[in-house]
Specification:
alpha/beta, Rossmann fold, five-stranded parallel beta sheet, 11 helices, 5 strands, 56% helix, 13% strand, globular, binds cytidine-5'-monophosphate
Length: 213
């Protein structure tokens, strides 16, 4: 088992917000794994170059980019499209495992689509965060700083990504019984966080990593 909180779920489910809150509460190190795919997609980094990158270098590239552009609807679909390529997934999965090794003494929180199924199946705690598609699209639209898009576009875009992420052959978004599923539809962030916090505490206390919480 590894001292990792693995958080998976569809876009707009609130998993990023909850992952950050969990990391800050327990003093774990957080990795938004979607940003790795978004950076590779945005910079059109060829596979041979991605293979040469360390996770630190890729995160350095990410930090130089405008978050708004990385998270734009166009780049979201682009990221989801390159994330279907097995060779890209292999390399990015390796980088995520390097990150976990790097911070093994502190504990890590990773959020994405295949963290608990592929990247770190032996994570100490696995959470699957979800919510209704309409509510997720509403949240994403409200979050967008740059409003030169419409709610309908955000909704459609999210639906495309949901389908791509769930139906791809490799590492599709799925929830099995090793996860605690949390449906955040109609819940406040505080309510969802309380459930997550208790789940993390319980999982760590019942493992060899009780001292981490
Ligand atoms: O999490 P986020 O929405 O930023 O991720 C962008 C895209 O990257 C997702 O739609 C998904 O296709 C891909 N992704 C993935 N595996 C992850 C994280 C993200 O396939 N662990």
């Amino acid at each position: 088992m590894r001292p990792v909180v693995a958080i998976d779920g569809p876009a707009g489910s609130g998993k990023g917000t909850l992952a950050r809150m969990i990391a800050s509460h327990f003093d774990f190190v957080y990795l938004d794994t979607g940003l790795l795919y978004r950076t590779v997609a945005f910079l059109n980094i060829p596979l041979a170059e991605v293979r040469k990158l360390s996770v630190e270098k890729l995160l350095e590239e990410t930090s130089k980019l405008d978050d708004k552009l990385l998270r734009s609807p166009e780049n979201s679909v682009k990221a989801s499209t390159i994330a279907k390529m097995p060779e890209i997934r292999d390399v990015v999965t390796g980088l995520q495992r390097d990150f976990i090794d790097l911070f093994n003494e502190k504990g890590t929180v990773l959020d994405g689509r295949d963290i608990g199924t592929v990247v770190v199946p032996d994570a100490c705690c696995k959470l699957f965060i979800t919510a209704d598609l309409k509510e997720r699209a509403k949240r994403r639209f409200a979050d967008l700083k740059d409003k030169n898009t419409t709610f309908d576009e955000v909704f459609r875009n999210m639906k495309i990504r949901d389908n791509q992420d769930k139906s791809r052959k490799i590492a599709p978004l799925t929830c099995d019984k090793t996860y605690l599923m949390i449906d955040t539809t109609g819940q406040s962030v505080e309510e969802s966080f309380k459930i997550c916090r208790e789940a993390v505490r319980k999982a760590f206390i019942n493992s060899e990593y009780g001292s981490f919480v």
